[in-house]
Design goal:
By secondary structure, the chain is mainly alpha-helical. The protein is built from 16 helices and three strands. The protein folds into four domains: 2-49, no CATH class; 59-149, Type II secretion system (T2SS), domain F (Receptor-associated Protein), CATH 1.20.81.30; 164-248 and 373-394, no CATH class; 251-353, Up-down Bundle (Receptor-associated Protein), CATH 1.20.81.30. 75% of the residues lie in helices and 6% in strands. Helix 14 runs antiparallel to helix 15 (323-335).
Length: 395
């Protein structure tokens, strides 16, 4: 956001335009340049009226740069100050300045970070807080960076596998809309005189063309309203929950989604255990990562562990462990490397999920192309079928 500043410098009144997060930030920038601020007001322009999404704080980049500066020998305060000086985005710079203020007041880094829950998730803050008791902040940063990179890798794998099917669906939908909205109405005029001799499916198709000719605007409005309502309902939490619940009931898809959720759960839990957080506390922290269908099972498992039961027993009893995960959990209990074993469980299931996505994509793409081809081909055949019959009758 831009601000107009009227300031005094060397007995002269000057006008400045600065980009800042708010009026206070703009005033602070002017004071830092040696000006005496007289007035500050937001600069109005057409761009200011356009809706803008708040830029996300670059958490991973911040962690990587902070880790590099700490490895170079800088203290946490000096490292954050260095990052604030080089930061060009006003929102991020304001956050870093607030963190520096808290650090100078003797607060811990985790205390400063928890003031910005949108930018620093609870998992990140808890990881930093745990490292402050052991003095290994750099190692905690490394673990979180590696954890986030693995999560992003799996997510990108799934997204990239879905791009080509989405392109096929979009292209097929556009061709179908073109045929139904432009070509079919024109064919309906040609066949109007011989409509009684048309096959049943062809008559239905051409009736659609006549409907578009007579009430095209109304049909368009109804279809647009239907699409808008569908998009609105798709964004509602209750609808999303209902759809996900239905998908989870599909045997093959539900099992794969369960494995994906458990892999993310074990990866996060393993990172927290490696950072020195107690198992019950770590389970409570990662409960929100699981869908509602699994949270009750997780609460039951946490209760079993609090009663002194083993982790493997609790996870097996409440169906939160696959056979492979159960074996690895027992190994982790015997060796005392539970955090490492949980990360290995996540890695194993991530690889399994990646193989399944690749297999499903190779199978689904040809089937999708065949279905789209059949739909478009059926429309074309139904349009030309009366011509074929007319040619046959002439012979």
């Amino acid at each position: 956001m831009h601000f107009e500043i009227k300031a005094l410098r060397a007995d002269a009144v000057v006008a400045l335009v600065l980009e800042a997060a708010d009026a206070g930030d703009a005033k602070a920038q002017a004071l830092a340049r040696g000006y005496t601020v007289l007035a500050v007001k937001a600069k109005q322009s057409w761009q200011e009226w356009t809706p803008k999404r708040r830029a996300r704080f670059p958490l991973i980049l911040f962690s990587q740069e902070l880790l590099a500066l700490m490895n170079a020998g800088l203290t946490v305060v000096d490292a954050v100050e260095t990052l604030a000086e080089k930061e060009a985005r006003p929102e991020a710079r304001k956050i870093l300045r607030q963190i520096i203020t808290d650090l100078y007041e003797g607060r811990t880094l985790s205390y400063a970070l928890q003031k910005f829950p949108v930018d620093f998730p609870q998992l990140y803050v808890s990881t930093v807080r745990a490292s402050e008791t052991t003095g290994d902040l750099g190692e905690a940063m490394s673990r979180y960076i590696a954890y986030q990179e693995q999560v992003d890798f799996v997510r990108k794998k799934v997204v990239s596998a879905s791009i080509y099917p989405m392109v096929l669906i979009g292209a097929g939908g556009l061709v179908t809309i073109f045929l139904m909205a432009y070509v079919v109405p024109r064919f309906s005029k040609i066949y109007e005189d011989i409509g009684t001799n048309l096959p049943f499916m062809s008559r239905l198709l051409l009736q659609w063309g006549k409907l578009l000719q007579a009430h095209g605007l109304l049909v368009f409005i109804v279809l647009a309203a239907t699409v808008a309502a569908s998009v609105y309902l798709a964004g509602r939490p209750a609808v999303k929950s209902w759809v996900m619940h239905r998908i989870w009931q599909i045997p093959a898809a539900g099992q794969r989604m369960r494995i994906y959720q458990l892999a993310r759960f074990y990866r996060t839990l393993g990172m927290l255990l490696a950072g020195g957080i107690a198992i019950v506390q770590a389970i409570r922290m990662v409960a929100d990562l699981l869908p509602p269908a699994l949270r009750q099972d997780l609460a039951g498992a946490a209760g079993k562990i609090s009663e002194g039961r083993s982790i493997s027993y609790a996870m097996e009893t409440h169906h939160l462990a696959t056979p492979v995960a159960l074996r690895m959990l027992r190994v982790g209990e015997r060796t005392g490397k539970m955090g490492e074993m949980m990360e290995r469980i996540a890695a194993f299931h991530d690889e399994e999920m990646a193989r399944w996505v690749e297999w499903f994509t190779k199978l689904f793409e040809p089937l999708l192309m065949a279905v789209i081809g059949l739909v478009i081909g059926l429309i074309v055949v139904l349009m030309y079928l009366p011509i074929f019959e007319l040619a046959g009758s002439l012979q």
